Amino acid sequence: MTILGKVRIGKVKSVSNELIVKFPTVFSTDFDANKKLIPQYSDIRSKHLNNQCAGYITRLLVSQKKREEALKLEEA
User: Fold this and answer.
1) Contact 51, 35 (CB under 8 A)
2) pTM of the entire predicted model
């Protein structure tokens, strides 16, 4: 059985990656906080697209945090 991830449109990925690169310390692993910050830092006005970007940013930061923790455990 294969576990598949969510399919996201290119707009969500490109906007989210751009926001993470431009503002690396602003976003966190909290979806609700990210949801409120996205309209301040981008020109997205659609609620649906805003929520998708917030979820994608949250997911990226959570997986990045897990990778960093795994590397620390490997070093120890």
Assistant:
1) yes
2) 0.85
